[in-house]
Amino acid sequence: MAMMPPIVRTKQLRSYYDFRGGLNTDAALDNMLDNELVRADNVDLLERGGIVKRKGYVRLNEEHYGFQVEQIIEWPRDSGESWLLAIVGPNLCRIREDQSYQAEILAPVASDKIGHFFLQDKFYFVDGQSYRVYDGSTVENVEPYDDETNDLEPIKRCRFVVRHPNSYRIFAAGDSQNPTALYFSEPNDPTYFKETNVLHPTTGDGPVQGLAVFGDALVVFYRHSLWVWRGTDPETDAVWHKVPSGVGTMAPWSVDLTPNSMTFLGEGGLYAISPAILGFDVTIEPTEGMVLNLAKNKVEKLIREIRDPSRATGIFDAKNQRYLLACTDAEGVRNNQILVFDWNLGAFTRYTGIAVNHFLYRLNGDLLAATNGFIIKMGVGYRDHDQPIPMDVLTKAYNLDFPFHKKRLLRLYCSFRQPDQETSKITLRLYVDDILRAEILEEGLYENFVWGKSIWGEAIWGFRNTITTRTRIYGSGHRVQVQFFNDQLDDPTTVYGIAFEFRPSRAKGRLL
After folding, report:
1. What's the half-sphere exposure (Cβ side, CA atoms, 13 Å) at 189?
2. H or E stretch including 15?
3. How many helical (H) and strand (E) elements, i.e. helices and strands, does the chain have?
4. Could you tell me what percentage of the chain is helix, strand and coil, using 3-state DSSP and rounding each to the nearest 5?
5. What tens digit of pLDDT does each residue of 313-330 get?
6. Residue 393 above 50 pLDDT?
């Protein structure tokens, strides 16, 4: 008869130095990976495994505009300048960067988001009621040629417009009177839309939800499907096909180009489609490599809880290789959270406390956001204007590699980084079998480390960037969680890892 291995009752040490799995709201606690987090608010993930408090933002305009900033647009001029435009309340404005970001009203608009394109150093836009052009001096209605075949009335009613570089044509959609229609201009002429220049890529997928250019293809979004065209002349090669994505979008402002893909919010997920899918039709089943649900088995629960997805807005931050999706989880409330997908790690965190109506990734790499009365620049410092950033992280419930044994906890170790001049304070809350057992304030420098300042006042003697603290803890149970919390101003808190010293006891259960 085989003998059971002896129960190890000596002290054990189990460390966790990898949090790169990020936020997981979908898996049961016991099914989560050890590197995943139950909560990951206001943090970013480090490639070597740690977590760091996200950076903050600064307000670019000193005075409140008096309205919500709904949309921000960068207009590259032929002169080499780059003008900042914005929808502020009911108006299209030029934001004067040389005058403390004051808003100069250009024209009233009929919607809080406008479709737009640039051509020949002019800015063209539609708002559902008018089709206008801004030349840098005045805003005027786009006037049609004096030709009975030219009809701009449907274009005025459109909400989406895009310039297709392969065909040199302007495509418009979102007509309130003909919601399935797609209109196109004559080549390189945004003022000439023949009355016969109208297509219906599909008649069974509902109204058009958005337009985008992906590679050489024009992509037309519907709620549950995508249709593409890759030709040069819609009149002669107007061959449309439905790509086998299985999803579409109801959030037109979430669409953005991402590394070797295009990403958007769809039913039940955040989807990234590969350019390879453009050559497939619905008779071929796509692989996961062509249509990837970034949220799958990670944050699908949060995606399902999104309210009013038409207001969701997304952007790819190329400098930091992150896709940010601003959305809301409350009825009647504007976007109140940002889901952040780290493209290199394939993992999520969440930002709170920033109500973003629209993002702009500028040509110089700055990430701007439109908020209530202000345009903000993100990724600056460690405070949100004058407010602290509440870093709040909750680990999974660790079984310390003894799933069926009760453990007596002895010590908690925490490794973190401190700023060059100040101390970093982190509140650790220890939960044993879901019960709060201890709240510990860990500081980067204890008194015995502080030997005084150098004579030049430049640094603390005995200073170390990385600190490991050891705290005696008490408690007995099967699973243990740790919450990291920090809401200090200007504290760039970084946690590298934790470890538990414990002693397992015999597994208990009913013998059969």
Report:
1. 13
2. strand 12-16
3. 2, 41
4. 5, 45, 50
5. 999 999 999 999 999 999
6. yes
